[in-house]
Amino acid sequence: MKSLTAKQIGEKFGKTPKEINEIFDDLDFLKKSDCGYTVTKKGQINGGIQKKYMGNDYVAWNEEILNNELFILVNQNNKLE
After folding, report:
1. Where are the alpha helices (DSSP H) in 1-81?
2. Are 18 and 81 within 8 A, CB to CB?
3. H or E element: which one contains 80?
4. Which of 45, 38, 46 is nearest to 65 (CA)?
């Protein structure tokens, strides 16, 4: 199964990677760290995979996240006014 970055997810919803990561932070799927983002237990359960690129931590997501009801709900509620 394919994994997606916050940038790739954001492109599907018209949001920036920062906005996508804020949604995942609100859901407690990840936490901001000194070197990027760290996946939480809840995030792992929902398909989060801890990755590192050029010394920075980030979380990739199983493509099933696009069908995650909680993510969809919060994403719709965060639409820009």
Report:
1. 6-13, 17-26, 41-45, 69-77
2. no
3. none
4. 46
pLDDT in tens, 27-59: 999 999 999 999 999 999 999 999 999 999 999
Tell me 51's DSSP state. E
Q: Is residue 80 within 8 Å of residue 71, measured between CB atoms?
A: no
pTM of the model: 0.89
Which two three-digit tokens encode residue 20? 């996508």
Region for residue 4 given its phi and psi (left: phi exceeds 0; alpha: psi -120 to 50; beta: otherwise): beta
Burial of 48 (0-12, 13-18, 19+ CB in 10 A): buried
